Amino acid sequence: MKRLLLVSAFIATFLLGYGFSRLIHVADNRPRVTGIGGIFFKAKDPAALRAWYTKYLGIRTNAYGANFEWHQGADSTKKGFTTWTPFKETTKYFQPSDKQFMINYRVEGLDQLLANMRAAGIVPTDSVQKVSYGSFVHIMDPEGNKIELWEPNDVEYAKMGTANTK
Predict the structure, then answer these.
(1) What 8-state DSSP symbol labels residue 76?
(2) Which residues pair with 130 in a beta bridge?
(3) How much helix, strand and coil, in percent to the nearest 5, is found in the chain?
(4) Is there a contact between 40 and 103 (Cβ–Cβ < 8 Å)?
(5) Where, by residue number, does the polypeptide cross the bilayer (predicted)?
């Protein structure tokens, strides 16, 4: 009887904890960063660097870089992607930043996030670009790093296969 009571208490505790975590997650629908969408960096020879990473680290690359597929924790049936892309060192894509790296952040609520940022005096460096696999915009952080914000459409991104978009 004690064993049954203990098991029942454990299951009840688990279910209550799970239920509360779902309520908290649903209630927190503020616009926010949800993860890293990509890491972009400059390279002298992007093709040679991709080949090196393939040969020595086993990263499967394509003409743009690599995509790492994962499943979203809140709903493990949903896919997510993080892209890894070396750009030619002469690229203008990172401007106005003079840095060698740019991080792409996955976000929820891009429009509201931008409205909040504009209210705080943070102005995007360009306008929102909408494509089938999501919406993109760029901002600068206080240290001059260009940041790409991406509100993904992972269903459409998954249809693209392993091809990167940049």
Answers:
(1) T
(2) 135
(3) 35, 30, 35
(4) yes
(5) none
Token readout for 72 is: 């979203």
Tell me how crowded residue 60 is: count the other CB atoms within 10 A of its CB. Answer: 10
Please tell me the distance from the alpha carbon of residue 67 to that of residue 81, in angstroms, as a whole number.
Answer: 6
Encoding tokens for residue 58?
């086993």
pLDDT of residue 123: 94
Distance of alpha carbon 149 from alpha carbon 107, whole angstroms: 6
Q: Which two tokens stand for residue 151?
A: 């509100």
Q: 51-97 pLDDT, tens per residue?
A: 988 888 788 998 889 989 888 877 888 888 899 999 999 999 999 99
Tell me the HSE value of 88 on the side-chain side, using a 13 A CA sphere: 4
Q: Which residues have a Cβ under 8 Å from the Cβ of 162 and sit 6 or more positions away? A: 60, 62, 66, 67
CB 149 within 8 A of CB 102: no
Query: How far is 56 from 60, CA to CA, in rounded Å?
Result: 11
Token code pair at residue 40: 């972009």
Q: Does residue 106 contact residue 34 with C-beta atoms inside 8 Å?
A: yes
